[in-house]
């Protein structure tokens, strides 16, 4: 880039005009309160090319903190590593640094040093001050160019996102695509995508999360913490410096680490809040207005896609009880079959087992190998379960994107666990999916039984899900 070359030439010019051993310009990062080496010219091989100096640390850091020049005309008997730009002592005898300020804001620090004593006079400070205006102008031009590049890139990204999301017809895939897009747009310690729990007023569930703590499946309400405030206000929220740890003040019952920055954007339709996108980071000022604007646009497109997919799913479930991809019962058909089986088991005092199965890391398989491969895996599992359902009393269902259920009338807990283990081993056998697909799959299975550990249909489902989660 031409501006980068201009800055290099300017630094060489400063070095020549001041007879410096090393001339360096460090750029200010106000979010992290750090100076970072930007360009330098030196006769030394020991300059740290990626040096970072906290505001206030050493002579250079003091210039950033005070925004005033600093001069050490007698540097003898000092270790030059205190400057923060050398990897070893260079026997520096003189040092001088001045702040580079543009429109009242610190842009960085320009510094020079020498191995000669008392080499920098007042005139050298004046020379440096004259150069700072040129540095500020070049940095402003660089900022404008970067802004144009970022704006162009962002527009292209949003166009591609909007074009692709309209072609996805199920909620789970929409969520995964949105989640991955957010991660690509903004770097942060953790981000979460939460949806409103169907049938529960004001309750939300973490569907997808990138965090060092396992919080997927956790629920919170619209009255809890920062996330709850975003939901109640139906407005995005950008917080630059939150004091204290996350804890319940954020929304989740289990802390996910030290949080200083928060960005929350609701997923909205005309009538209600569908969910929320949350980003958190341990550093101050990690998110800016650009991030808020981009995530808000992403959330708007995702909300529309989710609402349309839910409407289509509802229409489909009302018209049929069969899943179109696998030919198994869908969730609506599953509930009907389970209620009939439970009624019969209650009347005849027979056992009834329910098996719920979830494919491990199925979202990652979809992202890595494509949705066609994912669909083929689902069809093969459906075929396996169908073969177990030749008895009219046994019913197999696809209850979610990668969740299956098997209703087993007259089957005990022990027998149900035996069948589950056989299914697990069959699916995880390398021959189940041809090697040409390049994927390895595994499943987790939960089994519950009436009346052994369940007293109702809901008990059967909830206990199977609880055991599934443990698995």
Task: Tell me what the structure shows.
- The chain has 471 residues and is of the alpha+beta class.
- It folds into 3 domains: 2-146, GAF domain (Beta-Lactamase), CATH 3.30.450.40; 166-316, GAF domain (Beta-Lactamase, 2-Layer Sandwich), CATH 3.30.450.40; 320-470, Reverse transcriptase/Diguanylate cyclase domain (Alpha-Beta Plaits, 2-Layer Sandwich), CATH 3.30.70.
- The protein has 12 helices and 16 strands.
- The strands form 3 sheets. Strands 3-2-1-6-5-4 form a 6-stranded antiparallel sheet, sandwiched between helices.
- The radius of gyration is 31 Å and the shape is elongated.
- The two termini are 54 Å apart.
Strand content: 15-25%
* Helical residues, percent: 40-55%
Rg for CA atoms: 31 Å
CATH homolog superfamily of the largest domain = GAF domain
What general form does the structure show?
elongated
Low-confidence stretches: 244-249
Just give the CATH class of the largest domain.
Alpha Beta
User: What separation lies between the terminal Cα atoms?
Assistant: 54 Å
Structure classification: alpha+beta
> How is the CATH topology of the largest domain named?
Beta-Lactamase
The biggest sheet, with number of strands, parallel, antiparallel or mixed sense and barrel status, is: 6 strands, antiparallel
Number of separate strands = 16
List the total number of helices: 12
Average predicted local confidence, pLDDT = 82
Strand order of the largest sheet: 3-2-1-6-5-4
Tally of individual domains: 3
Any idea what the CATH architecture of the largest domain is? 2-Layer Sandwich
Strand/helix succession: HEEEHEEEHHEEEHEHEEHHEHHEEHEH
């Amino acid at each position: 880039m031409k501006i980068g070359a201009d800055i290099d030439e300017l630094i060489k010019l400063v070095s020549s005009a001041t007879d410096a051993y090393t001339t360096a310009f460090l750029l200010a990062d106000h979010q992290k309160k750090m100076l970072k080496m930007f360009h330098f010219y030196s006769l030394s091989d020991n300059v740290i090319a990626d040096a970072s100096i906290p505001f206030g640390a050493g002579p250079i850091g003091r210039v950033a903190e005070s925004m005033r020049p600093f001069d050490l005309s007698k540097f003898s008997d000092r270790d030059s590593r205190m400057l923060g730009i050398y990897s070893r002592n260079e026997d520096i005898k003189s040092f001088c640094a001045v702040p580079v300020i543009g429109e009242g804001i610190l842009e960085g620090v320009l510094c020079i040093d020498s191995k000669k004593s008392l080499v920098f006079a007042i005139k050298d400070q004046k020379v440096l001050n004259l150069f700072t205006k040129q540095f500020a102008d070049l940095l402003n031009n660089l900022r404008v160019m970067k802004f144009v590049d970022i704006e162009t890139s962002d527009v292209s990204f949003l166009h591609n996102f909007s074009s692709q999301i309209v072609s996805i017809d199920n909620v789970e895939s929409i969520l995964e695509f949105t989640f991955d897009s957010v991660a690509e747009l903004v770097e942060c310690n953790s981000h979460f995508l939460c949806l409103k729990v169907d049938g529960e007023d004001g309750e939300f569930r973490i569907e997808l999360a990138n965090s060092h703590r396992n919080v997927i499946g956790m629920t919170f309400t619209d009255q809890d913490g920062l996330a709850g405030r975003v939901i109640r206000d139906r407005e995005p929220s950008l917080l630059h410096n939150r004091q204290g740890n996350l804890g319940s003040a954020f929304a989740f019952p289990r802390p996910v680490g030290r949080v200083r920055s928060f960005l929350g954007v609701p997923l909205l339709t005309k009538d209600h809040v569908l969910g929320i996108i949350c980003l958190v980071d341990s550093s101050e000022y990690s998110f800016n207005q650009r991030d808020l604007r981009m995530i808000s646009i992403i959330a708007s497109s995702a909300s529309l896609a989710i609402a349309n997919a839910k409407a289509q799913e509802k229409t489909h479930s009302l018209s049929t009880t069969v899943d179109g991809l696998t030919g198994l019962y869908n969730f609506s058909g599953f509930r009907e079959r389970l209620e009939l089986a439970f009624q019969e088991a209650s009347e005849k005092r027979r056992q009834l087992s329910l098996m719920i199965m979830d494919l491990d890391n199925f979202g990652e398989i979809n992202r890595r190998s494509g949705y066609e491969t994912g669909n083929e895996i689902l069809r093969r599992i459906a075929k396996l379960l169908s073969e177990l359902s030749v008895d009219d009393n046994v019913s197999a269902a696809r209850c979610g994107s990668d969740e299956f259920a098997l209703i087993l009338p007259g089957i005990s807990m022990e027998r149900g666990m035996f069948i589950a283990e056989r299914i697990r081993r069959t699916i995880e056998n390398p021959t189940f999916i041809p090697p040409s697909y390049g994927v390895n799959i595994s499943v987790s299975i939960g089994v519950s039984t009436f009346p052994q550990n369940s007293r109702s249909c809901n008990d059967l489902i909830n206990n199977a899900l609880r055991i599934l989660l443990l698995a």
